[in-house]
Amino acid sequence: MRSTPGIFDHLLFAILLLLPLLEWRWSWPRYLRRLAAGEVGERLRYLRSLIAGEWALTLGLLAIWTVCKRPWANLWLGSPNPARLGIGFGYVLLLVGVLVWQRSAILMRPGVMVRVRARLKYAEALLPHTATERKTFWLVSLTAGVCEETLYRGFMTWYLAVWMGLIPAFVVSSILFGAAHIYMGIAQVPKTALVGLIFAGVVFYSGSLWPATLLHAAIDWNSGELGFGILSTPPVQDAADSLPLPPV
Predict the structure, then answer these.
(1) Residue 2: its pLDDT value, please?
(2) Contact status, residue 55 vs residue 63, Cβ threshold 8 Å
(3) CB-based contacts of 243: which residues, under 8 Å, 6+ apart?
(4) Residue 244, in any domain of the structure
(5) How far apart are CA 129 and CA 209, in angstroms?
(6) Per residue in 18-32, pLDDT tens?
(7) What is the pTM of this model?
(8) Can you give the residue range of the structural domain that contains 214?
(9) Are 67 and 6 in contact (CB under 8 A)?
(10) Residue 247 placed within a domain
(11) Do the domain assignments include residue 117?
(12) Which residues of the chain have pLDDT under 70?
């Protein structure tokens, strides 16, 4: 049973379109300037603001769903086929294992760490540099997994599917998910959109938001751990370490 979008749905959709533009043109540049000025605790404040903002939107969405008594299956939070759900989780755990292995391999090779640090330059302002920031980034990762999957693969896919059908909705919502990361550079938009399509594929096959939520949170957590491991280690070039760089 598919509900019809109402005024609050249109408003939330508009917010999800406008907030990334506001972050790109206003809040992110201001944050970078404060960070460059050496303001104490600025990165922690920014990370905490991300957590608060995403949970506010997500809890608002869930409140609307509860009050309107809408089917949770519309957000891919219903009761999926157990076999497909199990396969979905199995696939996700395999990918997570590969990511953890890759991170361990990188952090054991100083020469590779130098090159990966250069690749992560676009995200350095967001990655944890201290033990306290590292723990906060764990919460950021969990928040991204739960909230962004609920908002994009859940709500936005449902909203768009009303007008264009399910598969196009998955594609468009993934593109908008990529566009929401434009503040990190235009080059990151297509890359993040592709990751969004992978999340969408996991949701579509498993029939549930939960495997994609786990994968999303694990990817962000792994990136934070990799970033912390590299940024907290003095950059030393190891000339003997010339093996090809693993993709990150």
Answers:
(1) 58
(2) no
(3) 109, 112
(4) no
(5) 31
(6) 999 999 999 999 999
(7) 0.91
(8) 7-231
(9) no
(10) no
(11) yes
(12) 1-2, 234-248
Q: What pLDDT is stored for residue 63 in this prediction?
A: 95
Provide the 3-class DSSP secondary structure of residue 4: coil
Number of structural domains in the chain: 1
Q: Residue 219 half-sphere exposure, CB side, CA atoms within 13 Å? A: 19
Burial of 189 (0-12, 13-18, 19+ CB in 10 A): middle
Q: Three-class SS of residue 138? A: helix
The per-residue pLDDT for range 75-104, each reduced to its tens digit, is 999 989 999 999 999 999 999 999 999 999
Nearest Cα residue to 219 out of 149, 129, 119:
149
> Please, what is the Cα angle at 169 between 163 and 175, to 5 degrees?
130
pLDDT of 242 reads 45
Which residue type does 88 have? G
Q: What does the block give as tokens for 176?
A: 């908008």
Contacts for 6-15 with beta carbons within 8 Å, 24 or more apart? 6/68, 8/64, 9/64, 9/155, 9/159, 12/57, 12/60, 12/61, 12/64, 12/155, 13/155, 13/156, 13/159, 15/57
DSSP annotation of 145 reads: I
Question: Which position has the token pair 């992110």?
Answer: 28
Note the pLDDT of residue 235. Answer: 61
The token pair that represents 8 in the structure block: 């609050």
Label residue 165 left, alpha or beta by phi (over 0 means left) and psi (-120 to 50 means alpha). Answer: left
Q: Give pLDDT, residue 10.
A: 96
234 burial type by CB count under 10 A (0-12 exposed, 13-18 middle, 19+ buried): exposed
